[in-house]
Amino acid sequence: MTEQSPGKTPAVTCLDELRARVRCWRDAGERVALVPTMGNLHAGHLALVDAARRQADRVVVSIFVNPTQFGPNEDFDAYPRTLEQDLQALGQAGCDMAWCPERQVMYPLDGGFMVKVPAGLADTLCGRYRPGHFDGVASVVLRLFNQVQPDLAVFGEKDFQQLLILRWLARDLSLPIEVHGHPTQRDHDGLALSSRNQYLSDSERAKAPLLHRCLCDLVEGLKAGRDWSSLKDTALSALEKAGLKPQYLVWCSAEDLGPPRPGSPQRLLVAAWLGKARLIDNLPVDP
Ligand code: PAF
User: Fold this and answer.
1) Ligand 1 atom nearest to CA at 62
2) pLDDT digits (tens, 9 = 90+) for 85-103
3) Which of 46, 66, 115, 143 to mutate to test the pocket of ligand 1 (most atoms within 8 A of CB)?
4) Ligand 1 pocket: which of 133, 140, 177, 282 to mutate (most atoms <8 Å of CB)?
5) d(Cα 196, Cα 212) in Å, to the nearest integer?
6) What is the domain count for the chain?
């Protein structure tokens, strides 16, 4: 069934209809991009739509709050669902179709087939604190890839570990889909845009940009050749003093999340709780 009204992107919920529309575009020789989301769209998502539009003739945005990537004590029920506003925003952003499957369309077999992400990629950083999270992400993204069959898909670099895993998913399974990363969109004070920022109180929101400031200082420190372990201790103390509860702060290879290697891309990644919000951020470290 398709939902359409002026200014809004049509929302498709039926797999046959999705396939028929995409087939028409393909028959006309058009290139199709997919932007997977869980809805509650903000400027960060719309920047992904914009990037997708620059690389393809047609853009599909999927909206599905994926139960398999939430742990038992996580915010699946509370996760903000704002479909009407999302469709309006997508209409303005020039998205051609919103793919909004029901749970039974995404997971026809309850407890069905799941992707097992290799331990080296899945059990570190966020995966260490969110067991099974990346299996859930990879499983839903593989389903989305099969449903939409896009030429390319665009993901935000804010979820850097997710992006790396999805690049490997496409490569390891020889999927004919390009996986593109897009730079993190930030608020005026540097805070990375995220749907979970709305869990922050006003006073927490005022402290949250410290996460990005610490990363910027660490990049400068590393470029100046300073010792990583003392840089890290200083940053962790600053975060804790401001009331954040850091889970990890890591300097690693941007290719496989292993130890940083001289001459190849490196990344700083951080995760910290602030009140009810679990915030993540990352920055590249130029070799
Ligand atoms: O990044 C997200 O919003 C989700 O993890 C994704 C990629 C849409 C899969 O549910």
Assistant:
1) 8
2) 999 999 999 999 999 999 9
3) 66
4) 140
5) 16
6) 2
